[in-house]
Amino acid sequence: MSIILDHVNHIYEAGTAMEYAALKNISLTIPDGQFIGLIGHTGSGKSTLVQHLNGLIAPTSGNVYYNGEDIHNSDYNKKELRSKVGLVFQYPEHQLFEIDVFSDVCFGPRNLGLDKKEVELRAYAALKQVGLEDEYFYQSPFDLSGGQKRRVAIAGVLAMKPEVLILDEPTAGLDPKGRDEILDQIAKLREETGMTVILVSHSMEDVAKYVDRIIVMNKGQVRFDDKPREVFRHYKELEEIGLAAPQVTYIMQTLKKNGLDVDTDITTIEEAKTAILNALAKADKPMA
Amino acid sequence: MLRDITLGQYYQTDSVIHRLDPRVKLMTTICYIISLFIVDNFVGYILAGVFLALVIKLSKVPLKFMIRGMKSIIFLLIIAVIFNLFLTPGEVIFTLWKLRITKEGLRQAVFMAIRLVFLIMGSSVMTLTTTPNNLTDGMEKLLGPLKFFKVPVHEIAMMMSIALRFIPILLEETDKIMKAQIARGADFESGNLIKKAKSLVPLLVPLFISAFRRANDLAMAMEARCYRGGEHRTKMKPLIYKKRDRLAYGVVVCYLACCVAFGKILL
Lengths: 288, 267
Prior knowledge:
The complex is a heterodimer of chains A (288) and B (267). Chain A is of the alpha/beta class and 288 residues long. Chain A is 41% helix and 22% strand.
């Protein structure tokens, strides 16, 4: 049970002057239940990659398998695939169209052909999952704030009960508070449901705290694919491709260089706090 | 899927045609369209075809781009051909059940098809080789005399350029929203006409909202830069005719003369 990409290439506008290879020979395995951060600079091919995962675009060459089946086989049920692999686009609030929040969330499950009761149950559950209060349910989605609209849009995909949830830059354009809220919600959601989550972002800072695996894309290729701490060790190379490790990594590196005995593989602020306090306590002892 | 429409899209390259004054290109396009309606025999259409082929060759725009633009009018083309083919009275050459194909009808249909194809291709050459900005400048200058009759020439030109500028943006937006709704299980392809029309609601509502939002933002940005219409507005790059522009006018006049001479009189 997993998604497998086998030597996937994607070329936009093949055969014209604007020909552009967005993905070059990508092979990846995404097992069930993993929390993945897909990181890359603008134009690195990350959005193109995730659109392959639910069959919205077909690879120019190579294959995509979901649970062992080639999704581009002529008899493969793409509609079912799209309910299993939920994709939340960048600025998903731009896709809202219904007269109220609740009907908009119902759109996805209704397309699956479920009966009315099941559709409404799912919509209600999804809106609760993203933490939207009842009082907003029957308001026009266009009257909500940016962060709330985004929650509604995410709920619209969640209501289809996907096994894999892909979020393309879910925090773009949100303020720091809104960003943290959305990310925390997603992390909580994953804990509760155990679904596979792929978080697309250009910021290491955003994902470092949550994910168990980071895939770094550069110019259509996979540059790194490892646990966060392993990836951040290459912070110098990351800088070369226009990315950066989280600030914590830099602080730990500098502290180490200046003689404080700390673990430089630390990725989150909480861990850093403990490590620094421990190191200081150790350093203090000989003097005392 | 929607990137195929090339009308109103600029193709970046460096060619003689690209460097021509936009006024020349506008006038040439108008003359070319007129010429298509003047000629009514095969010699004339061959002439028009050769002229178009030469211009396309000179413009260095791959032919593929023009042909891709044709896809959008194929439906119109088929209807025009069918109507002309069956509904023109004259000497019957073929009968199929109640439908008659006449000699005149066949001729008319072929001419109509050629005319439409050349028309679209001819105007695509203009939009593919001229940036929207340039095109508006040219139009504004050409329509300049109308200002005496209180026609808001500058405003019209500005609106045209904004409209042209937004075609590719809105197409891209449509593509994006379509994908987002497909990801939510929307189905734009199957079902009868009513179902299909209904399925467009999730596409059209967000598209209109986004168009209004963009229009609002643009108006704000223009106002922030003190835009206030055409009065006393000067240009950074005023349009000036050069030698090649005069030459091009000469060629167009020659072409028109040939069209009248061969496309009309001879048979």
